[in-house]
Amino acid sequence: MASNVNPTVRRRRLGQELRRLRELKGMTAEEVAERLLVSQSKISRLENGRRSISQRDVRDLCGVYDVEDKRIVDSLMEMARDSRQQGWWHTFGDIPYSVYIGLETDAESLRVYEPQIVTGLLQTRPYAEALVRGALPETSADEIEKRVEVRIRRQERITTERNPLRLWVVLDEAALHRVVGSRLVMREQLEHLIELSELPHVTVQVLPFEVGAHPGINGQYAILEFADAADSSVVYLEGVTSDLYLEKAQDVQKYAVMYEHLRAQSHNVEVSRQFIAEAAKRYAD
């Protein structure tokens, strides 16, 4: 696979274009499904980028939408071909959140609210190992190692010098007190967190207990934004058996407003860094 081809992003862009063509034709997904003798859910999955799109699918859909411009058809066919290639994460086998990894790999910026733990991109290996082992107690050692390796590989987005991910994290104070692994693991994790927070493209704020009820009380979420205007922002909500991706503008805007409230209620960057340092010292006692 060419290093500049991200299959997840290709699927999203292709799905968006196919949706645009359907809407220009004035057809519903149900009508298209009836014409092609497929389920409506398949059309929906093709358009939301959650499913690989074959060149045959593209050909059939272009026929339904009466797309006669060969350049458009060829462009869509190429995107379909790229969307079926594999990203770096596929070398690790079946990863439950592979769609998210594909989006994160291509994102320009990421805003995360994390209520319980240090977010994955800022975790040390010992912390990540203890976290996965505790969260998935019936998982094999090999599977735990695979998940940790993927997490460490993802962190290259913030450690690279070339076009690093712009990361903003609001971390609930609870994450500083929840002992994952051991006191030593926690001390090293918090010291690592402070170190990374000093990178110019990484911002970490702590939301203190004293705030009480707040807009993020319902749980963790992330907002991914992309450099290409053709790629809409995505809100990612992680689940136990399945994940949720919100792309409608009104949904993204609602979560973005919530995030601004969380940032405003959190300690500023310098106070947050001092707050984390004090927590790290307590684990040294």
UniProtKB/TrEMBL annotation:
SUPFAM superfamilies: lambda repressor-like DNA-binding domains. Residues 18-72 form the HTH cro/C1-type domain. Transmembrane segments: none annotated. CDD domains: HTH_XRE (cd00093). InterPro entries: Cro/C1-type_HTH (IPR001387), DUF5753 (IPR043917), Lambda_DNA-bd_dom_sf (IPR010982). Coiled coil: none annotated. This is Helix-turn-helix domain-containing protein. It comes from Streptomyces lavenduligriseus.
